[in-house]
Design a protein that fits this description.
nucleic acid binding, about 45% helix, alpha/beta
């Protein structure tokens, strides 16, 4: 892969408290010029080392509400401050607000005509999918959760382009 490196990151958790609720998935859509790669860290494979390895060479990290949720959650759960690692962060939610686009990522996507393959899945259902996988050994639930997370990161790239 060649060229400037940017990444789009989204996490899934079992709730809103980093002290009590683990991160279940970290999805990272990495773009180096025309080359793209997608990395997902899942369950016990979510470690500080794995996250830093996945983000090696990333110059700019894009999130939606990551300033208030994803990055503090990662810092609290994993002890990794991505900004201290020299990665610049751009929270696309703020760019949306400046353009009068309010609400969560899914609402903004609808406003901008960004489509989803899984339009009926949301954060609450993502938590339920994780528990179905963990408690019921439901591999299809995990596959759906991973696809949902992947779609979030891919749509962040589309959102960024639409905001330009």
């Amino acid at each position: 892969m060649t060229g400037a490196c940017e990444a789009y990151l989204d996490i899934e958790t079992t709730g809103f408290s980093p002290d009590d609720c683990p991160i279940t998935v970290i999805g990272i859509h990495i773009c180096r010029g025309q080359d793209e790669e997608f990395v997902q860290l899942v369950g016990d494979h979510i470690t500080p080392e794995a996250l830093l390895e996945a983000l090696r060479g990333v110059e700019v990290l894009y999130t939606f509400n990551g300033e208030r949720f994803d990055l503090p959650y990662i810092r609290r759960r994993l002890g990794v401050d991505l900004m201290a690692e020299g990665i610049r962060h751009c929270d696309l939610m703020h760019h949306c607000h400046r353009q009068g686009l309010r609400g969560g990522l899914k609402k903004v996507e609808v406003s901008l005509g960004i489509r989803r393959r899984l339009p009926d899945i949301n954060g609450y259902q993502a938590v339920r999918l994780w528990w179905r996988y963990l408690n019921d050994y439901d591999d299809q639930a995990l596959e759906t959760l991973l696809e949902y997370n992947k779609e979030d990161t891919q749509n962040l790239k589309i959102l960024r382009r639409r905001l330009e």
